[in-house]
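During the reporting period, our protein records have gained a structure token line. A sample record is set out beneath this paragraph:
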Amino acid sequence: MQAFPNTFSSYRLGNLTLKNRIVMAPLTRQSAEDDGTPTDEMTAYYARRARGGVAMIISEGTYEEDALGCIAYLNQPGIANEKHIAGWRRTVDAVHACDVPIILQLMHGGRVSDPRCLFAGEAPVSASDTQSPGWVLYTDSDQEKYDRQVVGHWPKVTFPPARALSREEIFRIADGFAEGAARGMQAGFDGVEIHAANGYLLYQFVDPKQNLRSDEFGGSPENNIRFAKLVCERVREAIGPGKLITLRLSQDGVDDFGGAWPDGVRYAEALGRALADAQVDALHWSSFDWTDNRDPNSADPMPTVLRRASGKPVIVNGGIAEGPHAEQVITSGAGDLCAVGRPLFAHPDWPYIIRAGEPYNWIPFDRKYVIKPPYDYSCGYPLDLKRSVWPADLNLRRRHPEG
């Protein structure tokens, strides 16, 4: 008898027929060129996981345009120009050669954009005039410095105050997502994921603690999600009905790992109802543990709530490390697909391993597998970890090309 029959059943999502229910989650690595061009190393990384048995891959967060503080972190990949398109096309072709679809996650950093990615004199943008209390990920770790071969001072980089976007800028950013999505289709992607989770710009609108607006983009769950819905609508217009669109949501972010919505499940229900008519094929719930809703008044998992309220398929992420965990997502009705992240860094064959049904001695997660994970050497060899110059001077900003 096959282990985990529900996990390894096929599923129809939009116009895609997926061979099983396991999706590779978007995983930040910061391994693009300094100008955002995807590298051969990235091609070898994604191809290795496509070869390992996942049904679909969601790319790491990618910036769609170099405007209004969109770039979130150093060496983030972009889809903002022809060079980016050509770089991503190599990765897409390598993944497709394994008969696996891949969608492009598009994001805007908002108030948690690394200040070194901003132009001189430029402030980050957000839903409201706020400032993140956090700091740029991994800038406080000696181990990360060693693994990335960074030489010199290793600063703890905090975020500057952000300014509220104008209504006109909101529509401009939505158009930027659509333009980036269209370029993604030129690269051959099977669809896009809109990133409205984990602390980034669209999340800053969804989160009622950060969104203090009183216009149509704030003040209620329906208004808070309006920007994300607008982005999905513009993207659908740009890529047409045949390509996949997913929307990623979460309660927490990179600067608030324990975050929770003030109204908990009630807030999630309101968001789900508002998303029932959204131009998306699925919602994607992101968390550290999908069973923990952080709501003392309800035991319902958030993905279950969103699936019920929206009527949309749901991809569930968080705490899925073994075969039984994936099976529970499907059999409990919490979701239709499982997004697996950390296990795939060190174990690109994770789907095949759990399908065997045999006990396995997993390698504990460690950041070093993020920085240099197993690669498919048929796509890029020899491989050397790119040595980037990450400036220690926090006052150093990029110079605008117009001077």
User: Anything to note?
Assistant: The radius of gyration is 20 Å. The chain has one domain: 11-371.
